[in-house]
Every structure is written in structure tokens, then in C-alpha cells.
Amino acid sequence: MAQNQHEPGRLIVLAAPSGAGKTTLVRALLERVPNLRFSISYTTRRPRPNERDGVDYFFVDPERFEEMVRRNEFLEHAQVFDHWYGTSRAHVEELLATGASVLLEIDWQGARQVRASAPDAVTVFILPPCVAALEARLTRRASDPPDVIARRLRDAVDDMTHWNEFGYVVVNDDLECAADELAEIVVGRGDRHRTDLPEVAQRVEKVFAGRDCTPGETLRDAREAP
Known about the structure:
By secondary structure, the chain is an alpha/beta fold.
């Protein structure tokens, strides 16, 4: 058997609260880093109008998902907004073996599981410019009734409190700048975004305090965020 000439790629974990512009950032990041591959997650929720099975997610019923859990087929899985999401272990391992780096777009619960099984994974948390900007983004979703928006905002703010569990943090106050910062981290040049740096903690403090944030402008480039 011929020896595999590829060095294993890096596992990149990206998490963010709902409405922070994560989906748009992922697309921009994939354009900037050619050797980065996106891992498609499994989910039990129904597809949205513009989503395609096998492209955005693998859409499965709860019974199929539970069977995959029993067979230990997930690298991580978690329940988010009454639905289950999971990352196929075999799919990620196959991509890494080719030498590509693999991007997981998951929540903080899933990131904890990945860190436990893959401590060398690069973990990044995306924050919105401020809570007001997050609320403005969630409110623009015409498909969600007010009670759902209120719940999503509460859950999103709670998610934000887990930022310091990650190795790096990026504030999405400008799409192009945030995508460039993510690319720096992915290729191993993102030390200035480490969560253990005092200046990074100060920037995060401003996000929670709501300073330097104009809700009508800061998320204008994140219209396709989940």
C-alpha cells in the first residue's frame, strides 16, 4: 500500500450566537483560505427555503439522528433551539487525512465536546458588535414571531458568555475585517486574537457594554447569518 503523502490538516472550530453573522463569515473565510474545507453538519430541523440537503446541512429525522448517536458516529452533537445538530466523525477524519484543514460551524456545547476529544483543535468564537446589534439582526427575520425573537435573543446573549472557553475571539463589526482576522487565525498567524490577552478581553467588555456600536450599520453585511 502506498504511503499517504499528506500531512493531516488542522481542525478549526467556529462558534457564535445566533445572529452574529457566522454563515456569511464562513463563506468569506472559505474564499480566503483555499485549503479549508467545510464540514456539513447533520440536523433534525426542517430546511429553510434557500437551504439544500447535503449542501447546507444533512437533514435527517430524529430517529435517524438518535441511531447515529447510539453508534457513536458523531464527533460532537448538541441540541439547539429544540433541534439536534451533529458532526460526522468519519467525514471529518476523511477530510483531515487529505491534508485539508476542516472547519466545524457548531455551538459552544459542541465545541466543548470537540476540545475533549481533539485538544489540538483551533477554537474561535464570533461576537456581534454589541447586544443591540444582535437584537436588530434577529428582529429583521420576518419568519420569526416576537416571542421566538425574544427567546433567541436571551439564548444568544447566554451563548456569548462562553467566549472565554475558546482559544480565539473575533468581533464581527465589519465583515471584511472579521473575515481577514479569521483567516489569520486559520493559517496560524492569529496570536493577537487570543482570548488570554488583556486587550482582547477589553474589546469583549465593550461588546457587552454596548459601546462603539451602531445597530443599524454594524450588521449590514451579515444578512444571511443563521
